[in-house]
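In response to the reviewer comment on reproducibility (Comment 2.3), we provide here a single inverse folding case reported in full, input and output, so that an independent group could reproduce the run without further information from us. The structure tokens appear first.
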């Protein structure tokens, strides 16, 4: 019985994803993600001098979440932005920068409406404000992820001084500290799934898909990194554009993952949100 339900659900998922052209929508998302990436990085890096965070910490974070080739592609532009960043970026160009950075989130919200099969009736300004707020949330998560390893070590040192924890307990704390990044990624995806589609959902309804999307993101990133390192010679085919092509492919896969698990959430909860 369970096997038959699983097969029927898989067929329905495949059929609806084809009807909604989810692969094409993921390709469009990759385009928007690419053009939103550098405004987002410019805005994020421009804040670093005010928060006592070094650019190498941003690079370390990027290296944990992105394939090595993508890290190498973005490393030099990030360093250039950090070296040339000044107050003008935060004053004169902030509106344009934030608007541009939120385009990727705006496209993702529209794409989630497609996989949920709902129309968008929120106003242009409300939708843009939501995109900007979710983008700010993403930037905040970046800084929290950067700060937690440092402050986590300070907390461990403080606990050691005050309570004299055994060594094995401190080792557990150290491991938990490095689990923060994937947990925070899950929180971000949960926020996107919860606030993005133009329907009323509960956190419980979107949480399962968020966890699955976060795990899929990390596994596919690791697999893609291994493939690029050992088999994919994009530089020979595309020359100096190889890094950009790899970045686009990675964005495509990430967009597809978000839409796939968003669609799974939609099918799982369809009777509830259409009731």
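Designed residues, in position order:
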């Amino acid at each position: 019985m369970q096997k038959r339900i699983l097969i029927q659900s898989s067929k329905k998922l495949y059929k609806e994803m084809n009807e909604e052209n989810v692969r094409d929508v993921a390709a469009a998302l990759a385009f928007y993600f690419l053009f939103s990436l550098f405004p987002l990085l410019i805005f994020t890096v421009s804040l670093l001098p005010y928060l006592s965070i070094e650019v190498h910490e941003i690079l370390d974070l990027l290296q944990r979440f992105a394939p090595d080739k993508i890290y190498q592609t973005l490393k030099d532009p990030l360093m250039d932005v950090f070296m040339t960043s000044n107050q003008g970026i935060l004053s004169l160009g902030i509106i344009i920068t934030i608007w541009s950075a939120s385009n990727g989130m705006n496209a993702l919200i529209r794409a989630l409406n497609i996989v949920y099969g709902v129309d968008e009736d929120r106003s242009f300004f409300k939708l843009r404000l939501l995109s900007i707020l979710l983008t700010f949330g993403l930037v905040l998560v970046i800084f929290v992820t950067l700060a937690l390893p440092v402050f986590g070590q300070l907390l461990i040192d403080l606990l050691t001084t005050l309570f004299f924890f055994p060594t094995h307990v401190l080792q557990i704390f150290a491991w938990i500290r490095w689990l923060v990044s994937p947990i925070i990624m899950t929180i971000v995806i949960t926020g996107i799934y919860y606030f993005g589609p133009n329907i009323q959902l509960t956190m419980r309804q979107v949480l399962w898909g968020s966890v699955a999307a976060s795990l899929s993101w990390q596994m596919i990133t690791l697999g893609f990194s291994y493939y690029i390192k050992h088999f994919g010679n994009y530089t020979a085919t595309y020359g100096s554009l190889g890094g950009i092509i790899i970045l686009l492919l990675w964005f495509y896969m990430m967009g597809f993952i978000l839409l796939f698990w968003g669609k799974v959430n939609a099918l799982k909860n369809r009777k509830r949100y259409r009731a």
